[in-house]
From TrEMBL, chain B:
Keyword Iron-sulfur: yes
Domain 2Fe-2S ferredoxin-type stretches: 2-105
Listed InterPro entries: 2Fe-2S_ferredoxin-like_sf, 2Fe-2S_ferredoxin-type, Adrenodoxin-like, Adrenodoxin_Fe-S_BS, Beta-grasp_dom_sf
GO BP, one annotated term: P450-containing electron transport chain
PANTHER family, per database record: 2FE-2S FERREDOXIN-TYPE DOMAIN-CONTAINING PROTEIN, FERREDOXIN/ADRENODOXIN
Name of the protein this chain belongs to: 2Fe-2S ferredoxin-type domain-containing protein
Gene3D superfamilies named in the record: 3.10.20.30
Keyword Magnesium: no
Entry similarity comment: Belongs to the adrenodoxin/putidaredoxin family.
Superkingdom: Bacteria
Cofactors named for this entry: [2Fe-2S] cluster
Length: 406, 106
């Protein structure tokens, strides 16, 4: 029997190593379209861009170590077609047969749909090659315009401004990171970035990007022209579902899977950024782009491929390092009814809890890892809380968080 | 090269040679020590690279920082000599360091 995995990112690698850890002795084939063995993406917008970590140290495990585990790595090969009947995948150099197939296809940067977005000097950031290009461009750039005040945009902004660049962040929404964090967190980071010297424009509309062959300016809807010799577009990602959709698998917003990560074809599974899955923390189907989801969902899929039946039920968590600040989030902040602040935003150490029906459904922590770890347990356990007790510094959060899980 | 020993709960020892400056977590994961999960890749954000420093070595390692101490409260099996291996960077002084692996990370 052969397990074939399309996509050699965090999720693909996790599926491969998990099936091995579970004692599977058949063939495992991991196919990636990039030339590198599986590597970590989060540092690309953080330590890698700063130059404090290099490409080699992003690699999870050398190719030889994967080979020693019996994981056949096929790199630099694009999967072109899945044949559900023949149970084969066509790649550049031939055809690979599978008995079980995992789709860990990932996502790609959303394109900015304005004139000039295809000029030289306009970048996006997803893979190592993108990171290398951005890093080298940043060295010689003076005026950096970042489109999108999300995690990637703000992480890069902090690094660029610290390197002495003139940095402008253009955010279409009313506040930075609006879809992901509480308003109090957006406000705090907005101020932090401004204090570092970054200009942030919210509710920004980009009219066009100008330049003859290389970007020179970005023009806003209100007529303002901003000088730019480097533009980074960080406006979200779209799942790589084409190959699955062409094979006839349903892909409403990512590859549709059930609670164990199985598609409508019982031998095909999906995990990570590309998987549209039922999630109890979302209360609906959702697609999550995070390391946590890539790892935990892949563990579920690996088990399901070996006929175990445990559903995906891991509590979501995420982190973002911006300047000196560490943001850690847990849960999914959909439909919060109120927010409770614990700690001291002025001191740069606080947590905002998202409450719904008397329970913590999500929490965003700034420089407060202990709060974050407690919040993970509170979200996972659905622990009832009284807002005043939660906000009270005299309350021992750990005791509160442990009450159901102890 | 600096020699580091990892001992599993069942007593099995894995001996690896690390480079000065490398984190113990990187040394372990890149060599397939699967007891070190290191979900966040070394950002001190997940507490899944827990190791227990052998008593004979505790005084020879720098004390954990505030972030690490906070995260250590939440490892699966905390002990008085628990550390997060992503925060331990190899120096020449670590030659022969003995670390115990926990039976689970979370």
């Amino acid at each position: 029997m052969a397990i074939v995995i399309l996509g050699a990112g965090q999720a693909g690698l996790q599926i491969a190593t998990s099936v091995r850890q579970k004692g599977y002795t058949g063939k495992v084939v991991l196919i990636g379209d990039e030339p590198h063995p599986p590597y970590q993406r989060p540092p690309l917008s953080k330590a890698f861009l700063k130059g404090t970590t290099d490409a080699a140290s992003l690699i999870f495990r050398p190719a030889e170590a994967l080979a020693a585990q019996g994981i056949d790595l096929i790199l630099g090969q694009k999967a072109r077609r899945i044949d559900l009947i023949a149970k084969t995948v066509e790649i550049n150099d031939g055809t690979v047969s599978y008995e079980k197939l995992a789709l860990a296809l990932g996502a790609r940067p959303r394109q900015l749909a304005v004139p000039g977005a295809d000029l030289e000097g306009v970048y996006s950031l997803r893979g190592l090659a993108d990171g290398q290009k951005l890093m080298s461009a940043l060295t010689s750039a003076n005026n950096v315009v970042i489109v999108g005040g999300g995690f990637i945009g703000l992480e890069v902004a902090a690094t660029a401004v610290a390197a002495g660049k003139v940095v402008t962040v253009l955010e279409a929404g009313p506040r930075v990171m609006a879809r992901a964090v509480a308003p109090q967190i957006s406000t705090w980071f907005d101020k932090m970035h401004r204090d570092m010297g970054t200009r942030i424009v919210t509710s920004a509309v980009i009219a066009w990007i100008d330049g003859t062959d290389h970007v020179k300016t970005v023009t806003l809807g209100d007529g303002e022209v901003i000088a730019a010799d480097l533009v980074l577009v960080g406006i979200g990602a779209v799942p790589n579902t084409e190959i699955a959709a062409e094979a006839g698998l349903e892909c409403p917003n990512g590859v549709l899977v059930d609670a164990v990560g199985r598609t409508a074809d019982s031998d095909i599974f999906a995990a990570g950024d590309c998987a549209f899955h039922p999630n109890r923390f979302a209360g609906s189907y959702v697609r999550l782009e995070s390391v946590q989801n890539a790892i935990d969902q892949s563990k579920t899929v690996a088990a399901a491929m070996l006929d175990e039946t445990a559903s995906y039920d891991a509590v979501p968590w995420f982190w973002s390092d911006q300047g000196q600040a560490k943001l850690q989030t847990t849960g999914l902040p959909f439909a919060a009814e109120r927010h409770v602040v614990r700690g001291d935003p002025e001191a740069g150490k606080f947590t905002v809890f998202h409450l719904k029906s008397g329970r913590v459904i999500a929490a965003d922590s700034v420089n407060s890892p202990s709060d974050h770890m407690c919040a993970r347990r509170m979200v996972a356990g659905g622990i009832p809380v009284i807002p005043e007790v939660l906000a009270d510094p005299a309350t021992d959060l750990k005791t509160l968080a442990m009450q159901r899980t102890a | 090269m600096t020699t580091i020993h990892f001992q599993s709960p069942s007593g099995e020892v894995t001996t690896l040679k690390g480079v000065v400056g490398q984190s113990i977590m990187e040394l372990a994961t890149s060599n397939g020590v699967s007891a070190i999960e290191a979900d966040c890749g070394g950002a001190c954000a997940c507490a899944t690279c827990h190791v227990i420093v052998d008593q004979s070595w505790t005084e020879r390692l720098p004390a954990p920082g505030v972030m690490e101490r906070d995260m250590l409260d939440f490892v699966a099996e905390p002990t008085s000599t628990s550390r997060l291996s992503c925060q331990l960077h190899i120096t020449d002084d670590h030659d022969g360091l003995l670390l115990h692996l926990p039976s689970k990370q979370s």
